[in-house]
Hints:
The chain is an alpha/beta fold. The protein has helices spanning about 35-45, 65-70, 90-95, 105-120, 120-125, 135-145, 165-180, 190-200, 215-220, 225-230, and strands at about 1-10, 10-15, 25-30, 50-55, 55, 60, 75-80, 155, 185-190, 200-205, 210-215. The strands form 3 sheets. Strands 7-8-9-3-10-11 form a 6-stranded mixed beta sheet, sandwiched between helices. Strands 2-1-4 form a 3-stranded antiparallel beta sheet, with helices on one face. A two-stranded antiparallel ribbon has the order 5-6. Helix 3 packs parallel to helix 6. It starts with a strand and ends in a 6-residue tail after the last helix.
Amino acid sequence: MKGVVAGYGGGRVLHGVDLECxxxxxxxxxxxxxxxxxxxxxxxxxxxxxEFGEITVNGARLGGRSPQEILRHxxxxxxxxxxxxxxxxxxxxxxxxxxLIRRKRKLLxxxxxxxxxxxxxxxxxxxxRAGNLSGGQRRMVEIARCLMLDPAVxxxxxxxxxxxxxxxxxxxxxxxxxxxxGVTVLLVEQNVRLGLGLATHGVVMEGGRVRLTGTxxxxxxxxxxxxxxxxxxAE
Length: 235
Ligand SMILES: Nc1ncnc2c1ncn2[C@@H]1O[C@H](COP(=O)(O)OP(=O)(O)OP(=O)(O)O)[C@@H](O)[C@H]1O
């Protein structure tokens, strides 16, 4: 992202965001409430259009394109929690993620197999209603559904929201394995310690701008961040 200015109904929230994510990195955006973190994800996935600025993914200029076009270019956003259809089976929920390729039956089958390998829960609980899964399992299926289009870039807004430590470890493990398999990840986390622990790179946003960037470790150890978010006193 270069110089991205965006907002809602005339009110600007992003005031010129510059952000770069290396291929196959895991970048975590942290910052106070209202800093514009989720808005960055929404601009990237096309839910809102930037007023100014450039968005380039793998050389393709995607700024202002429709969510569908952006998905076709390999950028998928995992929606915030509670996004599954509870009365439908796990398999049916995952297949929904293949809506854009629904007429390519063979590809759809191959992708479902691939997703079941990447997220074994999808095969293990294929026939169960999504509503019967635990919170952590639902989060895994929400992520699995996004994998049906085999995205190059995965956007996650608060993947830790509402999860107990055990479920968190499962979701963190899944993000790691997807990343190891070549997926570039950009996530927003309120749980700064967890988010930066998962990430290779960190970005601190404040007031609709990027204030700091670095490796996840540099950001986690930055005196201001440690004092503000991690409960460590700056010397
Ligand atoms: N749909 C919307 N319509 C109007 N204003 C919005 C909308 N969504 C967010 N905003 C405003 O945009 C600003 C930034 O919101 P955003 O959700 O990007 O922040 P954030 O950094 O993700 O914060 P949080 O951690 O609280 O989610 C806030 O002032 C918020 O009120």
